[in-house]
Structure formats: structure tokens, C-alpha cells
Amino acid sequence: MKKTKGTPVKNDTTESAVLYMALELSQKQWKLGFSDGKKMRFRDIRARVLEELQEEIEFAKLKFNLETEVRIRCCYEAGRDGFWLHRYLLSCGINNVVVDSSSIKMNRRKRRIKTDRALRRATHGPILAQETYPLSPCKEWDQRSSKM
Length: 148
What we know:
The protein is α/β, with parallel strands linked by helices. It contains three helices and five strands; from the N terminus they run βββαβαβα. A hairpin with a 4-residue loop joins strand 2 and strand 3.
């Protein structure tokens, strides 16, 4: 009796690289947090200067030895700058989510550390933990009808 070989199955165990980015937006400067899932990098740029944002994203790709066409996942807390930045990031091909501030998990038992670095680390944690965002995304506010 002749045995036939089964169809070979390609076991691709390589994971596609992802650049994770968290933004802390304020009036005069934006604080950026980057990660490749292993290392973290923090940078500050002037607020609303999109050229500097693009430069920092490209520099982070170089620092983490990532491809130029790497997938980028980003989030920032809803607030002052609204959704114009969200639309800009989406137009650049960056997977972005604007999160509700109450959905960012912070340890409430210990003394509260109110720093931007702690917030960026807290925002990176849930993004790195799951492929889908466990954070509550905000709905885009319709300015014409003043409804959420």
C-alpha cells in the first residue's frame, strides 16, 4: 500500500513588528512615548508641529531597527486638541484611538503619581497587552449638532 504525503503546511512563527506610540497633549508641548514591545523611548516636541511628530516617528523606527513600512499603533487621551489629530494620524496610515481618560488604568491604592511619564507608561501597558484596545474609545463629537 502506497502512502501519500500530506500537503505541506507553512508554520510562520514570525510576528510582524509594530511601533507603539502614546501621546500626552498639552498647550505648549506634546510628550511622546514609543515602544517596540521591549524597549521604551520618550521624547518631547512642540505642540501642533506635525513635521516634528513625523521626524520623531521616523527616528523611533531607526532606533528600534524597524522597517520603514512598519505598522504603527497610537493612542492619546481625549481633551484639548479634539479629533483633528486623530484624523491626521489616520490619514498617515497610523492606527489611532482616542481614549477616555477614565479608561486608563492607574493604581489607586498607592500614592498617585501625577506625571506625564507615568501616564504614558500606563497607556502603553494596555496597548502592548492585547492586539485589540481594551481602552474605551471616545466618540467623535459632532460640532454642528453639539451631540456626542
